[in-house]
UniProtKB/TrEMBL annotation:
It is found in: Cytoplasm. This is Dihydrolipoyl dehydrogenase. Its cofactor is FAD. It comes from Kosmotoga pacifica. Pfam families: Pyr_redox_2 (PF07992), Pyr_redox_dim (PF02852). GO terms for cellular component: cytoplasm. Disulfide bonds join C41-C46. The active site is a redox-active disulfide bond. The active site is at H427 (proton acceptor). The keyword tRNA processing does not apply.
Length: 448
C-alpha cells in the first residue's frame, strides 16, 4: 500500500473534515471507513433524527395548532413515507461526504483498521497502513449496560429501523437523546414514559431549561419520572420495568439512552493510554503514542458532531504547520425538542450563579414573532460575569438552534451587554429576545 503523510481512521464528521482540510493543505492523505461515510451523525444520529423530528413535528403542529390558524380537516401520517424522507436525507449526507473526499483527492480505503505490533492494518485484507501520522476518529456507540442487555431493547440506532410506531414506549435516560426521542414518539402519538436518574431532565443544561422542557413534555402527555433508576427488567409480550421508586411500568418498547461509549480500533486500547474507555490526549489531541492523534467521541469528552469536526480541523491545520485555535468555553449545544433548546457557555445550576455573575430571563410570551407563530413557550436567558461580559446563554423556543450563533460569537469574543443592545436586531424575530434579555441585564428592558 502507498505511503501516506496522514491516515485518518473513521469517516464521521470529525475524520472527514480532518482529511479534507489536510488534503486542502497539500498533504497526501487517506481515510479508512468500515461502513458508511458520515459516521453516527449522518447514519444513525443527527440527520435521521432531525428528518423524523421535522416530519413528525409538522404533523403534530397541524394537529395541535391547525384549528387556531384556520386549518381544518383531519390529518394523519404514513410512517413508511416518513422513513423514506429520513433515508433520502441520510443518503444525501452520506454521498455528500464521499463526494467531497473524492473532490479533494483523499484516498478512500474501505475496511476495518486494527492495531498490532505498533502498526495499523486493515482487518479484512491484512494490508498494513503506512503513514507518518495517524488520526483516530472512530467515534462512539450507545452504552447498554445490564439490566438492559435483553433481546428487543432499543438503542437510538434501532429507532430508524422501526416497522411501526409503538403504542407505548419507555425511554431510560433523560439526556439529549432521551428528550429528542420523547419528542419524536409523542409527536407520533405513542404513550411515552421518560425515566431519568437525576432530579431534572437535561441535567447539563441550565436549570431553567430543564424546567421548561419538563413542562413542555408533560403538556404533551409524556410521563416524566425523575430521580429514579430501573432496577430490573422482564421481557415478554410487553416489557416490565421495576423502578427504584417501587413503581412497575409496562410498555411495548424500551429505548435506552443513558450515554455513549468510545469505540477504539481493536488492539489500540492495549497500547495507548485510556481513561474510562476513552483515548487520552494532550491539548494538541496527540495520544500517549507519538504521531497518533485522536479527535471526537473516541476521546470521551464532548460527544458532538460539530466539536469532532472542529477538533479534526484543528489537528489538520497543526499537522500542516498552521496555527489553529479551539475555544471549548464557547461550543454550542442544541436539543431538537419542541420547543428547541440551544445553549453556549455558562449555565446556572441548582447552586445558582457565581459571585458577581448576573442573569436575566426574557420570556418569549413577550416576543412579537413568537406570538405570530403561536409559539409563546420559551425564553432567552443571558449570563454575564462580574465585568458585564456575556459568558453564557440558554435559549428555549422556536428556531433557537439558528438564533444561538449570536451568543456563540458573544461568548467567544467576550462581548459586553452593550455590544448586544447596540446591535440593531430585525423586527419581528425570535432573535430580538436575545437583545431584550441583554436590555434586562442593563436594567432598561423596553419590552417587559
Ligand atoms: P447524555 O449523557 O446526554 O444523557 C444521558 C442521561 O441518562 C443523563 O441525563 C443521565 O443522568 C441519565 N442516566 C444515566 N444512567 C441512567 C440510568 N441508569 N437510568 C436513568 N437515567 C440514566 O447521553 P445521550 O442522551 O445518550 O446522548 C449521547 C451523546 O450523544 C451525548 O453526548 C449527546 O450530547 C450526543 N447527542 C447530541 C445530540 C444533539 O446535539 N442534538 C443529539 C443526540 C445525541
Amino acid at each position: 500500500m502507498e505511503n501516506f503523510e496522514v491516515v485518518v481512521i473513521g469517516g464521521g464528521p470529525g475524520g472527514s473534515d480532518c482529511a479534507i482540510r489536510l488534503a486542502q493543505r497539500g498533504k497526501r492523505v487517506a481515510i479508512v471507513e468500515k461502513e458508511h461515510f458520515g459516521g453516527t451523525c449522518t447514519n444513525v444520529g443527527c440527520i435521521p433524527t432531525k428528518a423524523l423530528l421535522s416530519a413528525s413535528e409538522l404533523y403534530a403542529r397541524v394537529r395541535e395548532k391547525g384549528k387556531r390558524f384556520g386549518i381544518t380537516g383531519e390529518v394523519s401520517y404514513d410512517l413508511k413515507t416518513m422513513l423514506k424522507h429520513m433515508e433520502r436525507s441520510v443518503l444525501m449526507s452520506r454521498k455528500g461526504t464521499e463526494t467531497l473526499l473524492k473532490k479533494y483527492n483523499v484516498t478512500i480505503i474501505r475496511g476495518t483498521a486494527l492495531y498490532n505490533e505498533r502498526s495499523f492494518f486493515i482487518k479484512e485484507t491484512g494490508e498494513q497502513l503506512k503513514a507518518e501520522k495517524f488520526v483516530i476518529a472512530t467515534g462512539s456507540r450507545p452504552k447498554i449496560p445490564s439490566p438492559f442487555r435483553v433481546e428487543g431493547i432499543w438503542s437510538s440506532d434501532d429507532v430508524f429501523n422501526m416497522e411501526e410506531v409503538p403504542d407505548s414506549i419507555t425511554i431510560v435516560g433523560g439526556g439529549v437523546i432521551g428528550v429528542e426521542m420523547a419528542t419524536l414518539f409523542s409527536n407520533l402519538g405513542s404513550s411515552v414514559t421518560l425515566i431519568e436518574l437525576m432530579d431534572r431532565l437535561l441535567p447539563t443544561e441550565d436549570v431553567d431549561v430543564s424546567k421548561a422542557i419538563e413542562r413542555a413534555l408533560s403538556r404533551r402527555k409524556v410521563r416524566v419520572v425523575l430521580s429514579t433508576a430501573v432496577e430490573r427488567l422482564e421481557s415478554g409480550e410487553k416489557f416490565k420495568l421495576f423502578l427504584s421508586n417501587g413503581e412497575e411500568v409496562l410498555s411495548e418498547r424500551v429505548l435506552v439512552s443513558i450515554g455513549r461509549e468510545p469505540v477504539i480500533p481493536e488492539g489500540l486500547e492495549k497500547a495507548v493510554k485510556t481513561e474510562r474507555g476513552a483515548v487520552v490526549t494532550n491539548e494538541n489531541f496527540e495520544s500517549s503514542l507519538p504521531g497518533i492523534y485522536a479527535i471526537g467521541d473516541v476521546r470521551g469528552k464532548v460527544m458532538l458532531a460539530h466539536v469532532a469536526s472542529a477538533e479534526g480541523v484543528y489537528v489538520a491545520e497543526k499537522l500542516s504547520g498552521y496555527e489553529s485555535h479551539i475555544d471549548f468555553e464557547a461550543f454550542p449545544s442544541v436539543v431538537y425538542s419542541s420547543p428547541e433548546v440551544a445553549s453556549v457557555g455558562k449555565k446556572e445550576d441548582e447552586k445558582g450563579l457565581e459571585e458577581g455573575f448576573r442573569s436575566f430571563l426574557f420570556p418569549l410570551s413577550a416576543n412579537g414573532r413568537a406570538n405570530t407563530m403561536g409559539e409563546r413557550d420559551g425564553f432567552a436567558k443571558l449570563i454575564t460575569n462580574d465585568k458585564g461580559i456575556i459568558v453564557g446563554g440558554s435559549l428555549v423556543g422556536a428556531h433557537v438552534s439558528e438564533t444561538l450563533m449570536e451568543l456563540v460569537l458573544a461568548v467567544k469574543h467576550g462581548l459586553s451587554i452593550q455590544d448586544l443592545t447596540e446591535a440593531i436586531h430585525p423586527h419581528p424575530t425570535i432573535a430580538e429576545s436575545i437583545r431584550d434579555a441583554a436590555e434586562g441585564l442593563e436594567g432598561k428592558p423596553l419590552h417587559i
